[in-house]
Amino acid sequence: MRETEHEAETGKRPLGVGMVGYSFMGAAHSQGWRTVGRVFDLPLRPVLSAVCGRDGAAVRAAADRLGWAAAETDWRALVARDDVDIIDICTPGDSHAEIAIAALDAGKHVLCEKPLANTVEEAEAMAEAAERARARGQVAMVGFNYRRVPALALARQMIADGRLGTLRHVRLTYLQDWLVDPGFPLTWRLRKDRAGSGALGDLGAHIVDLAQFLAGEPVAGVSALTETFVRERPLLDGVSSGLTGEGSTATGQVTVDDAAVFTGRFPSGALASFEATRFAAGRKNALRLELNGSNGSLAFDLERLNELSFHDHTEPATSSGFRRILVTEPGHPYLEAWWPPGHGLGYEHTFVHQAHDLLHAIATGEQPEPSFAAGLSVQRVLAAVEESAAKNSVYTLVAATPVTV
Ligand code: SOE
Q1: How much distance in Å is there from the Cα of 203 to the middle of ligand 1?
Q2: Hey, which CATH number is domain 150-304+306-345+371-389, 3.40.50.720, 3.40.50.150, 2.130.10.10, 3.30.360.10?
Q3: Which UniProt keywords apply (predicted)?
Q4: Strand 307-312 relative to strand 323-326, pairing
Q5: Is the pTM of this model over 0.90?
Q6: What is the dihedral of CA 51, 55, 58, 64, to 10 degrees?
Q7: Which of 40, 245, 280, 340 has its CA 20 to 30 A from that of 181?
Q8: What is d(CA 133, CA 130) in angstroms, rounded to the nearest whole number?
Q9: How far apart are the CA of 359 and the centre of ligand 1, in A?
Q10: Strand, coil or helix: 63
Q11: Which segments of 205-285 are extended strands (E)?
Q12: Are 61 and 23 within 8 A, CB to CB?
């Protein structure tokens, strides 16, 4: 992207961003790109060059609403633009691999929403393309934004510093309830051909990535159960979903999981448990975790994301217990750029931090995390969960006992 006089004076090199997709994640990423330069002092200034979507009128309206200078209806034209240096992929998983590999091969940096892909094979091809691009000085990152909650970045630092001692338990749940109503229509997230999987890839991907991020090691093995509670749902509009004729009121098959429950083991011997569901009535976006070690425990609840609970087991039992760390000090991750202590951040700030970390990596030539290789590692855990659940092999039936419990 060409530099203006002003940019030459401020020393902030402009970097053009091109975003594919403009729904929930597109809006969240746009917030990150618009805000990052106003909060963090970086040698690069992101320019929202163009946003892309198939529906011309809708994407032009989105460009206006979200602050993008132009609109494209073909992602290939977006990748070809000279004023785009970063391709930001905010589409359903079935298009991640094609767009990311083309963008990397065209010399662009890439940010790709999670999960990295719909299959391990796609994720492997993406990781290989990212490796090739790395040699050319390009970076690629996956949008596991919860790593950038300051409280969770602090948790990782504390664990790495040994504050928990040897990890024994890694326990995460991610609970939502937007599918409890059987009348909720068959959207793309409920179709395997579009989303790859259901709660497992959407919510489970986050907690698998966080487990590995916090533990500092990959999950080595899993045993799993998955379930689809509501197997048939009304079609949004037959034509738009491509499944039936104009204005159909027919139903369609749900082809993904509604919930996944699985255990895991780390190479260090620590045990993990995971639960991802869209049927936890009353839970809106409840990502919760607790890690227990030989010297203490950490606990976190996304619905109270400025807080981290810490128990130091090395303290005398008569005065120890979980205490709340309010993660708003300038010495906490990312917080120096924001408000004075106690003023708190929210969900959207994780996308500002994500934009910061990507731009910082481009400016310094470092590899940002999570890399596509980290995204592939998560994809392999998701595939193992699906394989274990399909085999049902590790699920041992308990002999029936004629008793009222
Ligand atoms: C699912 O509804 C969802 O939007 C996920 O796709 C996001 O990754 C998560 O951050 C919020 O919930």
Answers
A1: 7
A2: 3.30.360.10
A3: Oxidoreductase
A4: antiparallel
A5: yes
A6: 30
A7: 245
A8: 5
A9: 23
A10: helix
A11: 221-227, 232-234, 251-253, 259-265, 271-277
A12: no
Give tens-digit pLDDT for 68-101: 999 999 999 999 999 999 999 999 999 999 999 9
Helix (H, G, I), strand (E, B) or coil at 219: coil
Distance CA 108, CA 87 (A): 7
- Ligand 1 centroid, distance to 3 Cα (angstroms): 36
Which residues of the chain form CATH 3.40.50.720? 12-145
Question: At which residue do the structure tokens 């991907």 appear?
Answer: 205
Phi-psi sector, 162: left (phi>0), alpha (psi -120 to 50), beta: left
Query: By C-alpha distance, which of 199, 168, 184 is closest to 280?
Result: 199
> 12-145 maps to which CATH number?
3.40.50.720
Q: Which atom of ligand 1 is nearest to the CA of 178?
A: 2
Q: Cα angle vertex 206, ends 40, 292, to 5°?
A: 100
Distance CA 224, CA 252 (A): 26
Q: Whose CA is nearest to atom 6 of ligand 1?
A: 202
| Residue-wise pLDDT tens digits, 326-339 | 999 999 999 999 99
